[in-house]
Amino acid sequence: MTSKDSIYANKQPIEDFSFDARVVEVFPDMIQRSVPGYTTIVSTMGKLAGQYAQNNSNIYDLGCSLGAVTLTMRRNINKENCQIIALDNSEPMIERCKLHLEGFRSDIPVDVRLGDITQCKIENASVVVLNFTLQFIPKEKRQALLEQIFQGLKPGGILLLSEKFRGENEQANELLIDLHHDFKRANGYSELEISQKRTAIENVMQPETLSSHLTRMQNIGFSQTQVWYQCFNFCSLIAIK
């Protein structure tokens, strides 16, 4: 049974958010109640991976957390000689991810690794996933990471990128934030929880505008980039090499 996220329910000194053991315990509840459409995003990523995976290739889940995307990709991919490489820099996440994966049988091997995704060598890849991961990478390292992914993708390979993004101007951004906070209230978060979580995460997660993501993909060399899901200030896109 999933534990309920009550990390910020009581007034407390606020430290920068991290994916520590406390968060791991409540992560499924936290993500469902905080990210609109998360279930749809994860299941569709599995279907897209099944569609674009190539024989004899690597599939990367960068920032795999508890392995939700890895599991759905493994269920949907039916190509020969594929392996999934799941990477995260949170040791508690990786340990729990291994337990989750052991609960399901599959012919597709998964290599679960603890490490820094900016240092991960991407090679012979047909699918690479960054599911709400890039936003936690320092801004100055994002271009190099995406270029590295592009170089490591086979022709016809895809990058699946989900992000929380900023509105194109201050008024649009405040509108999106208000809509998201209403979503969290509707899912049972209090004003204190919303406020304290926002404070904890603002130094750790630095969202960019959607247009900046699209422009960067084009400049890196992806032949096409398409937003396939958006709700408030959350989106998911596919970039094809």
UniProtKB/TrEMBL annotation:
Known catalytic reactions: prephenate + S-adenosyl-L-methionine = carboxy-S-adenosyl-L-methionine + 3-phenylpyruvate + H2O
Keywords per UniProt: Methyltransferase, S-adenosyl-L-methionine, Transferase
Pfam families: Methyltransf_25
EC number(s) stated in the UniProt entry for this protein: 2.1.3.-
UniProt cross-references to InterPro entries, sorted A to Z: CmoA, Methyltransf_25, SAM-dependent_MTases_sf
Enzyme class: transferase
GO molecular function: carboxyl- or carbamoyltransferase activity; methyltransferase activity; S-adenosyl-L-methionine binding
Superkingdom, natural source: Bacteria
Binding, S-adenosyl-L-methionine: Y38, G63, C64, S65, D88, N89, D116, I117, N131, R198
Subunit-structure text: Homodimer.
Protein family (similarity comment): Belongs to the class I-like SAM-binding methyltransferase superfamily. Cx-SAM synthase family.
Record function comment: Catalyzes the conversion of S-adenosyl-L-methionine (SAM) to carboxy-S-adenosyl-L-methionine (Cx-SAM).
Name the record gives this protein: Carboxy-S-adenosyl-L-methionine synthase
Gene: cmoA
